[in-house]
Amino acid sequence: MTRPSVTQPTAARQAQLELADDALIAAQRLSEWVSRAPTLEEDVALANIALDQLGVARLYLQTVGDEDELAYRRDDAQFRNCLLVELPLGPARGDLDFGWTTAWLLFLSAAQSLRYTDLAAEGDEIAAKAVKESAYHLDHASQWTVRLGCGTPHSRQRMTEAVGELWPYTHELTEGLRERWLSIVEPVLAEATLTAPADGWKPSGGRVGRHTEHLSYLLAEMQSLHRAHPGATW
């Protein structure tokens, strides 16, 4: 079976793969919360957000090629997602942290909302469908950011640490729309009594296939069934 290639993609293909891969990897990360969220309501909410992300990923992958081949047969160096979405949803692998996930979702959904809105204005039908969903994701993350930031000293400290650790990765995520993204995120942080960190280290490479080791572990789990039984049907 020939693996799909992303060598020297056209500009349109590159853009579609970035959107698809961001959403696909985000969906896989968020699915880790199923049955583990702090409340039943939040368990359902995070699962629904993961499904929204997966839906967008599928639609964009279908515009590029075979969605199953692109999702399950590419190696990590062939993925074009930003580094932020592949990071574990906690300060240590295997240790899910709700505050960390909240900050992660705030940063991601603000960027996705802007991108989908811009693309919808240009006639992108997939983006037009995703605009409303991404607005909900942003609202959900914003409300939780404020609740945790203004909550107990412990919850505020956890949010402060999460924002500080994740902030460097937002530069790759927001390339081309940084100022507009800041205009969304900074007021939420301010309302939550949190401070946007000073810019410093700006890790990148995901858009050209240079990823952290976390993506390899994630893909090993996500792709294992398909690779073990290629071509299987139900």
Overview of the structural elements:
The chain is built from ten helices and no strands. By secondary structure, it is mainly alpha-helical. The longest helix has 25 residues. It is globular.
Features:
234 residues, mainly alpha, Ferritin, 10 helices
Helix content: 55-70%
Spell out the CATH superfamily.
Ferritin, core subunit, four-helix bundle
Mean pLDDT: 93
In whole angstroms, the N-to-C terminal distance is 19 Å
Largest sheet: none
List the total number of helices.
Answer: 10
CATH class: Mainly Alpha
Number of separate strands: 0
Rg over alpha carbons: 17 Å
The assigned CATH architecture is: Up-down Bundle
Strand coverage percent:
under 5%
Query: Which regions have little confidence, pLDDT < 50, spanning 5+ residues?
Result: none
Quick overview of this protein structure:
The protein is built from ten helices and no strands.
List the helices and strands and how they pair.
Elements (H helix, E strand, L loop, with lengths): L10 H21 L8 H25 L2 H6 L10 H4 L11 H24 L3 H25 L3 H14 L3 H4 L4 H14 L21 H16 L6
Helix pairs in contact: 1-2, 2-6, 5-6, 5-7, 5-9, 6-9
